[in-house]
Amino acid sequence: MVVVFDFDGVINKSEYFSVKYEREFGVSKDEISLFFQNDFDKCAKGNADIKELLIPYLVNWNWKGSIDSFLNYWFENDISLDNELLSFIDKLKQENFHVVLASQQERNRKNHIWDKLGMKNVFHQFYCTSDLGYLKSDKEFYVKILTDLKTNQIIKSPKEVIFFDDSKNFVKAAEESGIESYHVLENNEIIENIKNWSHQILKHS
Could you tell me the pTM of the whole model? Predict the structure, then answer.
């Protein structure tokens, strides 16, 4: 059985980066949101390099350093891991659940999350939009996940997969692929849903 977790909003409970940046640098959230509205999706799909697309925005964001120093600031300050949930995930692994991340990230932050934050020591796999070429709002993103899990003989059916996200739009897209999916904001919801789902799977296996 496979449990799929979103990262930002589920594993990472940090406030929005734009909120923190506005507080520290006096740049409005609306100004920062322009990049995410206009160009971020290209990076999240793996079709563009964030280092190239971000540079024109940094002038208006009052950033005086390099693009690399900005990304380092962003990645280091946009994190607040939910240790309670991570402990629960460790228990799932001990019970032989296959646990994976599914997240909408450009490649640099994806590598930061997996390697520097050590999520590679927590999760078995990381399905990222910039690797799969689809956003999490696309049904195809989840179809690719299912295909990979089947190819590697981890599952035989989508019914063996459950997904948790804090975005209703992403949950809807995952449901369309056949994955049992839940919009969650609290850890107790995740734990209860996994318990009920796994009991049903075992009951019919």
Answer: 0.94
